[in-house]
Design goal:
Layout: E1 2-6, H1 10-22, E2 27-31, E3 34-37, H2 41-47, E4 52-57, H3 63-69
Antiparallel strand pairs: 1-4, 2-3, 2-4
Amino acid sequence: MVFNIRIKSSEDAQALNAIATKIPYDIWIHGKQGTADAKSLLGLMLMSMENDVRLVVDDEADEKHIRKEFADFIID
């Protein structure tokens, strides 16, 4: 599943990373600069320079749970 998200600051990147590390599925961030593992803080910091990116989560994950966890970042 794919969600449009916004990472506004390094604090946002850290918060998103903290959430992603607790979820047992692969979570990726896709943007103009490339792709980063959301469980990698360094990767997120590199992506945080872009306003809008896509959060890609394994389709087996519970969508309601993912939406709730990432609600502060989802923009669609």
